Amino acid sequence: MFVLGCLPAVWLFWAALNNHLGANPAEALIRSLGDWSLRFLVLVLAVTPLRELTGWSALARLRRMIGLFVFFYVCLHLLAYAWFDMGFEGVEIVADVVKRPFILVGMVSWVLLVALAATSFNRAIRILGARRWQALHRGVYMVAVLAVLHFFWMRSGKNDFADVAVYASLLGALLAWRLWRRFRLRARH
Q1: Are 71 and 35 in contact (CB under 8 A)?
Q2: What protein family is recorded (predicted)?
Q3: How many CB atoms lie within 10 A of CB 51?
Q4: Distances (CA, A) of 127 to 65, 115, 119, 139
Q5: pLDDT in tens, 39-65
Q6: Phi, psi (5° rounding) for residue 159?
Q7: Angle subtended at Cα 69 by Cα 64 and Cα 74, rounded to the nearest 5 degrees
Q8: DSSP state, 19?
C-alpha cells in the first residue's frame, strides 16, 4: 500500500522534471495534488464499508496509512500553492485566504487534518482515551465536506462541475452509508 500511495507523487515529480505537465505546469501540479488528496480521502472513507461488505478485516489495518496519505497529498497541495502561486510570501498567503473563500475552506480542512495526523499513532489513543480519540477522528467527515466545498468553489469560476459531482457523490454516499449504519445499530438497541 505504501508503494502504491507514493506512485502518484513520484509520477508528478517526474512529470514536473521532464516538462510533462502542460502549458501551465504550476496549476497542473497544484490541481493534481488536490485531486489525489480527494481520491485518498474517498479511499479512507471506503475502508469501513468495504471491510463490512466483504468481511475482509485486514482492510482496517490500511485505514491509518491511507489517512496519512490524505494528509501527505494535502500538504503537498498546500506546499505547491504556497510556492508556485504565492512564492512563499506569508502576507500574500494570508491575504489570499481572507480574499478567496475556497482557500479559507481548504486551510480549515488542512488544520483539521493536522490534528488527525498528529494523533494517528497508538500512543495518542492511550493518551486521549479511545472515546475522545474516536470523536476527534470523526473530524474526517468534516474534512470530506470541506474538501468538496473547496473543490466546488474552486471549479465554480470555470463552471466545471463534472469532477465535483463525482467526488461529492462518492463522499456523500460514503457519509450516508455511515448515517444509515448508525441509525440501524441504534434501532437494534
Answers
A1: no
A2: Belongs to the MsrQ family.
A3: 17
A4: 20, 14, 10, 18
A5: 999 999 999 999 999 999 989 899 999
A6: 50, 40
A7: 130
A8: T
